[in-house]
Amino acid sequence: MCNNSGGRGGAMAARKGPWTENEDAQLVWFVRLLGERRWDFLAQVSGLRRTGKSCRLRWVNYLHPGLKRGRITADEERLILSLHAEWGSRWSRIARKLPGRTDNEIKNYWRTHMRKKAQEEKMLAKNKASSSPSSSSADSTSLTTTTCSASPTATSSSAATTEEAPQESTTNMDDEAEEEAATSASEEKKAEVVQYCSPVDMDQLWNDIAASERYPEMMMSWGVAGHVVMPAPAVEPSSPVWEFCEDYSLWRIDDQEYYNKIDQHALN
DNA sequence: AATGAGATCAACCGCGCGTGT
DNA sequence: CACACGCGCGGTTGATCTCAT
To answer: Biased composition, Low complexity: where in the chain (predicted)?
Structure first.
């Protein structure tokens, strides 16, 4: 299935590992051109020696406009905790409630932070057990105690998940409704995403990108129109991909509204 | 200043679901 | 109805960064 399995098309082995700036820029451009679907096709057509899967992941987790960079806030943490308590490790679903955050990000956050908290709890429990065996709940971490009681390492195991998400069935209707709402109101949500964009780098980025006008040049340099066996665009090795993107205004092909919103936000 | 441990993040993998033929 | 394909999701791993010793 993956094009690195040598299925069809190119016999080129798929690249793995960290993405280069050129690859990022290229991917961004082709996503804007083709949309966020048909990733295998996109991977082939773009000339990227990556699997569609890899392209999608890179886009979703790193390149997607509206992604929020920076630390998870206290509010977000609270939300994550409560949603995790409700849904278990349905990271993508949880992520939908946290505009600008990816499932991967939340997943990572959960793992690292909950592990820490679980360790703390363990210590607390031990201490309490040794001092007074009667009480069972740690009070200091009031917010987190209820949900992070599952050991973080075990969080990944099905046991923890099922243990923590027993209401899954009861929330089914909720979920479906939410999913529907999520897709139907995607436009709204995207605006929401934009709202949530923190003033970190992304703002600057989109601002810069919105301001530029030169994507056709890139098209030429990549020999767009379908099959691109391309030398990577010339980018200064040290320059962030965004500078490259900026030069070529990558964001103007489709989903115009969406990106307009982003642009507008960035300009505010 | 060196180094080891822990934290964080990006990326990959396998599996399952939805859809088209 | 069965099959193949494309995609998304959850779990895991490995590299890099940060901080304490």
So the answer is: 129-171
For residue A214, the tally of other CB atoms under 10 A from its CB is 12
Domain boundaries, chain A: 3-66+197-267, 74-185
Is the pLDDT higher at A232 or at A70?
A70
Q: What gap in Å lies between CA A91 and CA A79, rounded to an integer?
A: 12
Output the distance from A123 CA to C14 C1' rounded to whole Å. Answer: 29
pLDDT of residue A162: 34
* Residue appearing with tokens 């010339």: A234
Higher pLDDT, A66 or A263: A66
Any idea which of A69-78, A132-141, A173-182 has the lowest mean pLDDT? Answer: A132-141
Q: Is the CB of A5 under 7 A from strand B?
A: no
State the DSSP string of A165-179: -GGGGGGHHHHHHHH
Class of domain A3-66+197-267: mainly alpha
Nucleotide nearest to A89 (CA to C1'): C10
- Give A207 CA → C19 C1' in Å: 34
The pLDDT tens digits of the residues spanning A199-230 come to 334 344 444 433 333 443 444 444 443 333 33
Q: Which residues 79-98 of chain A have a CB under 7 Å from nucleic chain B?
A: none
Name the residue with tokens 């099922």. Answer: A162
Nucleotides on strand C with an atom closer than 7 A to protein CB?
5-13
Determine the 3-state secondary structure of A19 from DSSP: coil
Question: Would you say the C-alpha torsion A263, A264, A265, A267 has a positive or negative sign?
Answer: positive
